[in-house]
Task: inverse folding
């Protein structure tokens, strides 16, 4: 029940606590599933090639271990198809389309990896991945074009944090009470 | 729709207040909101879903050494930026209104604190503010806060001890957030989801107070109606209405006796510049050449510290729990006159732009996991808010790029000045000392960032040196008004929303009192 002006009453929103499991989800033919489930089921990416998807997973996992399993690439891929994507990238005030940001950044990443180690980023050892990430962090990567290396690092790192820690399940891993007044929808 | 008395572009803080006041006075009011309709049921407790209520309309290109934060600070849909604001409601100090006369920098406002005070008091009563009138020793004169202080949690208590040891005072930060039930709205539950919008309306956003009242008195709020230009009559001396596009991209004209542009700091000057015509070649209301000039933002940043104690940093309100304005008084002996303040013990979430993970953007890999586990229990923070002096080089112009309706986008350029940066650096050193005194075993500071957006259509007494008078009435077009932070000639160091409301209420009363002349 709502008040006359359409706002939810406190009682109403408190009742909604626990009514749904808050979480990220992507749509499949079987309804909304989590990005992790989408990855487990091997759902194809709509915006990324297989190589791009694997590189994105590898970078996400190097930035925050567990991001690959949490479905970072499926999460980003799904959001890129939405009319109003819920991506961190929105805050960077960049021109669209957002998919170009990811594709161009991944291209630079692979170029850096091939130039330095003769291998794809995902094929590199953890130590080599870390060395490249440290250079991205410093913004000192020769031959890296747009988007800037640090910006790409910063955005993918935030995407990784979103999928690992941005939901009720993520809060729980950190021991942080979620305290939702209005649970996010299950279907995105 | 038939001709209305008043058409308002934007349903944010100022647009919603104007709609309520003017429709209550019997005027026919139409609010054209560019974004979609939002209700309390859209305000999900999630930093991910909160992105949906941030700006995603026509892009503003940004440039300069310190680009303005557009999307994060603006709103998209009902309530505008005010729907996700943190409700830190502070009054400007008396000397914030005459910076030029007293200190030889910036500009004077065309109104004084004493003139604005009754409007602060009135808005405070309508929205409801919780705070500690006595303990807030820096507070300009005004009616006592209508609600008692809110609860204080460990993070605030720990940091306050650092202030105390250095001989600095703190008080509760006054907020448009209920500490008790107020006018039928419930008390805050301290869940820290303010940035995502408050679905129970404990926070005084436009959905909580002014938009319901506006609708009740007959104002119409029409969504997905993007105002693109103000249209003039044949003589070019009065405006006749506005041009807007609906979500299908169909152009419409809405006639009105009076037009108010209340489209926040980026779109307001853009609309004026895009409204250029044969008689107003440089944009509407721009005979001074100042439309888009003197864009401002607060210079801001955070002090972070790790403490042995559990800081309970997930509890409270996003805007902070305590306030210190010990460095607010303008003192040229410092080498600059910029004021500053601390907003202490902000409630934190793990992710998002202001989340715990971004307090250490240099960490990655397992080190980031380890930090998150520690910081979620032991991190404390406080936010520096510094005044930024107006600079004509900080401006918004039209871009060569166009929006989907074929109109030029905005391009905003901004860099902080030398004094702004000095003020920030001094604040950082002070903040670190406070955290060390409070017992932090590790202390660091963020880079300086941009908080809030103001300026671009400044008010003033002289038509050659300002865009509007003190009521937001443009000097060039008598039935065209501007509302919102665009009017601010200077930024001060307090969060702008309380002043936006007070100035807007004064505008509303003026329009009602002067209706015969204005219409």
Result:
């Amino acid at each position: 029940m709502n008040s006359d002006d359409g706002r939810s009453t406190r009682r109403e929103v408190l009742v909604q606590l626990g009514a749904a499991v808050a979480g990220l989800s992507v749509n499949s033919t079987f309804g909304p599933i989590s990005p992790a489930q989408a990855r487990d089921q091997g759902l194809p990416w709509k915006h990324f090639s297989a190589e791009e998807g694997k590189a994105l997973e590898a970078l996400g996992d190097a930035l925050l271990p567990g991001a690959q399993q949490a479905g970072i690439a499926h999460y980003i891929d799904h959001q890129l198809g939405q009319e109003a994507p819920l991506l961190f990238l929105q805050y960077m005030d960049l021109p669209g389309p957002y998919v170009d940001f990811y594709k161009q950044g991944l291209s630079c990443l692979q170029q850096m990896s091939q130039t330095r180690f003769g291998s794809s980023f995902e094929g590199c050892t953890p130590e080599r991945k870390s060395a490249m990430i440290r250079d991205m962090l410093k913004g000192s990567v020769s031959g890296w074009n747009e988007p800037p290396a640090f910006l790409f690092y910063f955005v993918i790192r935030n995407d990784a944090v979103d999928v690992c820690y941005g939901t009720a399940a993520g809060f729980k891993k950190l021991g942080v009470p979620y305290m939702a007044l209005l649970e996010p929808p299950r279907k995105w | 729709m038939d001709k209305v008395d008043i058409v308002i572009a934007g349903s944010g803080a100022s647009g919603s207040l104007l709609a309520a006041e003017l429709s209550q006075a019997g005027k026919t009011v139409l609010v054209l909101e560019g974004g979609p309709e939002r209700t309390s049921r859209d305000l999900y407790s999630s930093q991910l879903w909160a992105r949906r209520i941030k700006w995603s309309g026509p892009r503003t290109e940004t440039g300069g050494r310190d680009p303005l934060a557009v999307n994060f600070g603006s709103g998209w849909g009902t309530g505008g930026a005010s729907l996700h604001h943190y409700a830190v409601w502070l009054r400007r100090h008396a000397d914030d209104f005459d910076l030029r006369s007293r200190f030889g920098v910036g500009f004077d406002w065309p109104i004084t604190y004493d003139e604005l005070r009754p409007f602060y008091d009135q808005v405070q009563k309508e929205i409801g503010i919780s705070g500690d009138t006595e303990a807030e020793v820096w507070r300009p004169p005004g009616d006592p806060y209508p609600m008692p202080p809110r609860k204080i949690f460990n993070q605030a208590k720990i940091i306050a001890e650092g202030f105390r040891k250095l001989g600095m005072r703190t008080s509760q930060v006054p907020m448009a957030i209920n500490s008790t039930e107020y006018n039928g709205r419930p008390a805050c539950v301290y869940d820290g989801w303010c940035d995502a919008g408050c679905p129970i309306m404990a926070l005084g956003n436009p959905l909580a107070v002014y938009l319901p009242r506006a609708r009740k008195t007959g104002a119409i709020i029409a969504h997905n109606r993007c105002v693109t230009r103000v249209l003039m009559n044949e003589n070019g001396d009065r405006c006749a209405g506005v041009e807007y596009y609906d979500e299908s991209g169909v152009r419409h004209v809405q006639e009105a006796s009076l037009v108010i542009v209340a489209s926040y700091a980026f779109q307001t000057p853009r609309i004026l510049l895009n409204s250029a015509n044969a008689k107003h070649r440089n944009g509407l209301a721009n005979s001074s050449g100042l439309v888009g000039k003197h864009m401002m933002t607060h210079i801001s940043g955070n002090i972070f510290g790790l403490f042995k104690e559990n800081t309970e940093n997930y509890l409270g309100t996003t805007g902070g729990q305590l306030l210190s304005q010990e460095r607010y008084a303008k003192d040229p002996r410092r080498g600059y006159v910029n004021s500053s303040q601390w907003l202490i013990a902000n409630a934190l979430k793990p992710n998002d732009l202001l989340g715990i993970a971004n307090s250490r953007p240099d960490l990655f890999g397992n080190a980031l996991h380890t930090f998150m586990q520690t910081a979620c229990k032991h991190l404390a923070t406080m936010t520096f808010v510094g005044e930024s002096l107006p600079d004509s080089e900080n401006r918004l112009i039209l871009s060569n790029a166009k929006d989907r309706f074929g109109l030029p986008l905005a391009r905003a350029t901004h860099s902080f000045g030398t004094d702004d940066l000095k003020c920030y650096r001094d604040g950082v050193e002070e903040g670190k000392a406070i955290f060390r005194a409070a017992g932090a075993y590790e202390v660091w500071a963020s880079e300086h960032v941009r908080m809030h957006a103001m300026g671009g259509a400044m008010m003033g007494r002289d038509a050659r040196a300002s865009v509007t008078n003190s009521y937001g009435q443009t000097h060039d077009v008598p039935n065209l008004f501007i509302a919102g932070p665009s009017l601010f000639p200077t930024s001060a160091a307090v969060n702008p929303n309380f002043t936006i409301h007070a100035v807007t209420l004064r505008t509303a009363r003026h329009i009602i009192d002067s209706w015969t002349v204005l219409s």
Summary: The mean pLDDT of chain A is 86. The helical segments of chain A are 10-15, 35-40, 50-63, 72-80, 98-117, 126-138, 149-165, 168-174. DSSP finds eight helices and two strands in chain A. The longest strand of chain A covers residues 26-28.
